Amino acid sequence: xxxxxxxxxxxxxxxxxxxxxxENAPPPPPERLPITPIxxxxxxxxxxxxxxxxxxxxxxxxxxxxxxxxGGHGHTGFQRIANQEMNRAGVPxxxxxxxxxxxxxxxxxxxxxxxxxxxxxxxxxxxEIWCQGxxxxxxxxxxxxxxxxxxxxxxxxxINGHKVWTSLGHFATWMILxxxxxxxxxxxxxxxxxxxxxxxxxxxxxxxxxxxxETGFNEVFFEDVRIPDAYRLDEVGKGWAVAMTTLLAERGAxxxxxxxxxxxxxxxxxxxxxxxGTWRDGVLAAxxxxxxxxxxxxxxxxxxxxxxxxxxxVPALCxxxxxxxxxxxxxxxxxxxxxxxxxxxxxxxHSTLYKLDPSAPQAGHWPLAYLNSYGNTIAAGTNExxxxxxxxxVLGLPKTK
Amino acid sequence: xxTTKTAPRDFGFGEDEAMLQEMARKMLGERLPMDKLRTLxxxxxxxxxxxxxxxxxxxxxxxxxxxxxxTGLAVGEAEGGSDVSLAGIAGIxxxxxxHALPSPLIATLMASLVLRAAGGAVAGALLKRIAGGxxxxxxxxxxxxSWDPEHAPLIASGEADELVLHGGxxxxxxxxKADFLIASARLGxxxxxxxxxxxxxGLRLETDHIHDLTRDQASVHFNxxxxxxxxxxxxxxxxxxxxxxxxxxxxxxxxxxxxxERLLQTTVDYAKERVQFDRPxxxxxxxxxxxxxxxxxxxxxxxxxxxAAAEVDVxxxxxxxxxxxxxxxxxxxxAFISDRAIxxxxxxxxxxxxxxxxxxxRNMHNQSLxxxxxxxxxxxxxxxxxxxxxxxNLARDPAAN
Lengths: 401, 401
Description:
The complex is a heterodimer of chains A (401) and B (401).
Chain A: H1 8-24, H2 43-58, H3 79-89, H4 97-110, H5 113-125, E1 130-133, E2 149-153, E3 156-163, E4 174-180, E5 190-196, E6 203-208, E7 217-228, E8 232-233, H6 239-250, H7 267-276, E9 279-280, E10 283-284, H8 289-311, H9 328-347, H10 365-378, H11 383-394
Parallel strand pairs in A: 1-4
Antiparallel strand pairs in A: 2-3, 3-7, 4-5, 5-8, 6-7, 9-10
Chain B: H1 15-31, H2 34-41, H3 46-50, H4 59-67, H5 86-98, H6 105-118, H7 121-131, E1 136-139, E2 154-159, E3 162-173, E4 180-187, E5 190-197, E6 203-207, E7 217-228, E8 232-234, H8 237-273, E9 275-276, E10 279-280, H9 285-313, H10 319-345, H11 356-368, H12 373-384
Parallel strand pairs in B: 1-4, 2-4
Antiparallel strand pairs in B: 2-3, 3-7, 4-5, 5-8, 6-7, 9-10
């Protein structure tokens, strides 16, 4: 991203953000952080990351483009800059990923004025952690196959059902929840709610254990959970359309309320450093032509993603407006996965070591990153579903469903 | 930021550049539709493959192109050219690739970029000729097909007022369509670039028997070709070629991107029409998903292409890295869609008559031209990781002893 792309105001804001991040980078975490917010497990990690998001929010780096009435900072075109600077600075990620990239944009588009004022500020500050209640045991890639029911009862709704893969559910104040309100129509029988989780009678959050042996996501059970109609988002029967807004926001079609951090930009640097410090058949891996080629393949993909983001803003160089934005989830998650797999390969025998083994390189980062990378290639619509979406919406191929 | 040279807004691809590309797309779409291309270059395989004749090209269409001033795109206004940015030229070359245009245009653009980089009176006079419609090509590749500009194909001897050239230049593109060649020759410690008429005494063009039906290629034999001072472009040939190399890579990458997008769209169209098992084959994910993967690769290459063009246009220090990334990505994207295009068309795509092979072979030629993906990743590794340690002893694994 060159500075010539930016307005004077954006440049000044970028300067400010860079300066602020340099001065306010947080101390090292009390315990090892996971690679992405969807794997946050412990109270220690949560407290550390929540405090960091609050600080970024207060500094204007989160919710930069949201209206002040909803807790935002009221700018235009600043969030993109803030995201880039947070990425570049290698600071920790923002924990409230569901609140920022899913709940806030969806509530902004579909919510009443009252709902926007009530819910969005907590998304931005991170004071209220959000989780997502879309997936069910029988509704994965076939998302509309929802069973969790919402039945009207006076001014309230009664929720019954079972949600799965609920990242951050154990810390969440709120859930964006898709329910079935009619069995007569698959898509038009869905309704979207903003559902209280923490301390809510009838809600049980139970941890699920991932392939890494870690917890980090949950299943959530609803047994006669009573919530007021004021928590319904948009009309009864419009749940599918609202869910599509959420997924579009999640898949990176907008700048969102804030993202970044977590060191995405440093991925190639990390691989090069690993190769420079790893012996392979008597020479450094950094001197092995095959390893060098593999790292350069990753570097080209990394630069390609950066330049895709730039070209997406040049309509004359885009054949279809959604062609590049809809690729972000697919390319981003496979980029991380392939980087991690390459890290495992370069680390060689040392990648057999779990993080608690004292001689594990980078505290066991590479094999755990690789195992965890499947979270992102599966979540938010598996990458097979992403390929269907791209094939159908962008290339115009016949629909699979 | 302290850098003075930043890439322009939107890759420097503004309204003018978009208009040029649109015009080129429209003109070539009308003048060289698929059936005409097929009739022109692939009426029958025997003349070209059995008898080694050069593929035909449309000289009338070429006159129109000269009328439009395309030969002068990379020529400065002082020499009668239109001085279009490399980003703008890339847009036009994408269209050349999309329509697989047989012409000396790309070779001539390459020669003009070299002449511009060289500067001086001799180059200026040659650029004027090109702006007036003269055609040229580069004779800078040796018998080993080396893409190192230092590996000149020719030996020069003699004094400053007259040089004599000996040797053989290989892989000279569209030499039989060129009025003159820019040849590189080793003269003692220096590399000299000379302009030589293709009709010069002592120079013999030998047709290479090639697969690609949309160009000619020659081995050029220099048997004591005499070059006067008025034809010596520069004695700083190595510096000039190093400097201009990224631009040359951009041109080939643009051709690859255009042809690859054409193959993608052609295959998508076919997948929507061709019915098997009662459905258009594009319904099936075994067809849909590889087409999406090809789109992702082509988009990556295209974004890197315009990034590279923009970096060249501002003479940034990052131009070489950007251009090598673009050529690597474009070569690999082209290989992938060429492969899938033939395979997904099934039997019909394998026939001579259908014509997909015209694009397949043009891509295959361009993939290797100026180095394939592996070549450029090797160069990138030297730039981004650092050169391979020269002494294996110094880098021996201490633990191995």
